[in-house]
Amino acid sequence: MATASNKFKLIGPSGREEYKPSVVTLSCHLSPEISAVDMEIRWFKETDCVCVYKNRHVTEGRGYEGRVSLFTQEMERGNVSLQLRDCRRSDEGHYLCQVTDGDRTEEITVQMCKCS
Q1: What is the CATH number of the domain that holds 87?
Q2: Is the per-residue pLDDT at 72 higher than 70?
Q3: What Rg do the C-alpha atoms of the chain give, in angstroms?
Q4: Is residue 3 in a domain?
Q5: Alpha carbons 26 and 11: distance in angstroms, whole number
Q6: Is the pLDDT reported for residue 3 higher than 50?
Q7: Residue 2 lies in a domain
Q8: What is the superkingdom listed in this entry's lineage (predicted)?
C-alpha cells in the first residue's frame, strides 16, 4: 500500500567507514527522519546477506551470527545503521543497505576500509 510515509531516501556517511578491530558502525538513515520500525531492512556484503530486519525481528546472516546488530531502539527516528563487532580483514569492502516500505525500495552502498 502506497502512503505518503513511503517517500524517503537513504543517507549514508560522507566518506568511507573506518575499520577498527572491535566495532564498526556502517551509518545509514532515512530522510526525512521517519520511522523504519515497520519497514524491511536488508544489509548485504557483495552477495552475502549480513542481516535482515522484517516484522520487527532481526535475522543474522551465515558467518555473521553474534557479530551484527541494528539499532532497533533508534529505528523510530529512521536509523537503519549496521553495527559489526569483532571485525576481520574479510569484513572490509562494500556493503549494501536496502530498505523496503510497501512497494518502494531504496538502497545505498557504504564502504568499510581498514584504518591506516
Answers
A1: 2.60.40.10
A2: yes
A3: 14
A4: no
A5: 11
A6: no
A7: no
A8: Eukaryota
